[in-house]
Amino acid sequence: MLRFETAGESHGECLVATLTGLPAGIPISLDYLNRQLWRRQQGYGRGGRMKIETDRVHIVSGVRSSQTIGSPIAILLENKDWKNWTDILPVEEKDLNTEKAKPVSRPRPGHADLAGALKYNFADARYILERASARETTARVALGGLAKTFLRQFDIEVLSHVIGVGSVRLQRPAEWGEIVALSERDTVLLGCVDAETEQRMKEVVDHAYRTGDTSGGIFEVVAHGLPPGLGSHATWDSRLDGRLAQAIVSIQAVKGAEIGHAEEGSMAYGSTVQDTIHYKKEERRFYRGSNRAGGLEGGMTNGEDLLVRGFLKPISTLRRPLESVDLTTREPAIAAYERSDVAVVPAAGVIGEAMVALVLAQAFLEKFGGDSLGEVRRNYEGYLEQIRRF
Questions:
Q1: 3-91+101-388: which CATH number, 3.40.50.620, 3.60.150.10, 3.40.50.360, 3.40.50.1820?
Q2: Angstrom distance (rounded) from CA 316 to CA 57
Q3: Segment (H or E) for 160
């Protein structure tokens, strides 16, 4: 089974990521993994932290001579900002410099600060903030890069684009070629395939900048080249749509997920929602007349593109802070401010890619198994032949 974990704090010495269960023989490119980390840091509206950090993977186990060897993969990701926090977040109490401490005693509405402080009995929410921070997603993107590399061996690609920032929405479907071209750009504005819509999105972020506010939005993750049959209808926790929804909503600030045209379909009649079934005799394959289901039926992939959307609320740290309460005095106070972003929707899309890729890689290995890439490929090719002969 493919399993992953992350560890580390926002301003700690480093982030740690582990991935267990990848077969041996997968070619690994550090340049490709670092490119994914770079993509996560881009986008109009990012804050000062992105000027400090240049994220790069440091693989310490599980990869040798640019190939996986079947053992757990461990990755370290340096926090360059750590040098400014060594006296604030010491491992040993004797090293604590109280004069430099930066307590968080005025919790931010919408953040983990207060709920976490109550849960762990901390009068200072600093330790909650450090782990709850979206800085943790750097580790997820590194691991997602490994999962994407695995899926690419079978011509499966996972990419994202932005379809909404604030009230501005992309009013047309994005073509796969447009999404691919977007991922290859060396400059990133707001991750939208339509230039005119992207400029209107920028105006939303500009307004947030001017007013000390933040802006949310919607990203869409697309998985292209999937076979039918990943996931299962048999048990509630093996249904792929449920697993994907959990993966997307686990991303910081994401409050909802949509698969296919869920909201639109809920307001329509069934005759206009279901994707009709057809067959191409020359290619010996079934296909759908549309893809409103987003590539999933009955908890399983159906061979169409997988479409998963994440709904990102405006992030909680505001330069114009909201009302709060001081944890020490219990008196009304203005919420704390930490250096932060204004808009992060393109970055959230890249994180969404990582989470979707990890879930799909899990489902792929559950179905096809194998300890080496060659074994998995033989199993997969046998399944494709089975489908062709159906």
A1: 3.60.150.10
A2: 28
A3: strand 157-165
A 10 A CB-CB count for 191 gives: 29
Half-sphere exposure (CA, 13 Å, Cβ side) for 338?
A: 23
Neighbours of 78 (CB within 10 A): 15
Contact present, 335 and 327 (Cβ < 8 Å): no
Phi, psi torsion values for 63, nearest 5 degrees: -135, 125
Query: What pairs with residue 18 in β-bridges?
Result: 5, 74
pLDDT digit string, tens, across residues 218-240: 999 999 999 999 999 999 999 99
Among candidate residues 135, 198, 186, the one with its CA nearest the CA of residue 161: 198
Answer for the pair 230, 364: CB distance below 8 angstroms, yes or no: yes
- 383 contacts: CB under 8 Å, gap ≥ 6: 227, 229, 367, 368
CA distance 49 to 33: 20
Residue with tokens 């080496």: 372
Q: Tokens at residue 78, please?
A: 């340096």
Per-domain residue ranges for the chain? 3-91+101-388
How many Å apart are CA 63 and CA 71, to the nearest integer? 8
**Residue showing tokens 């740290």:** 317
Q: How many CB atoms lie within 10 A of CB 96?
A: 13
Rounded CA-CA distance 140/62 in Å is 17
How do residues 205-222 score in pLDDT, each as one tens digit? Answer: 999 999 999 999 999 999
Contact 347, 289 (CB under 8 A): no
| pLDDT tens digits for range 22-37 | 999 999 999 999 999 9
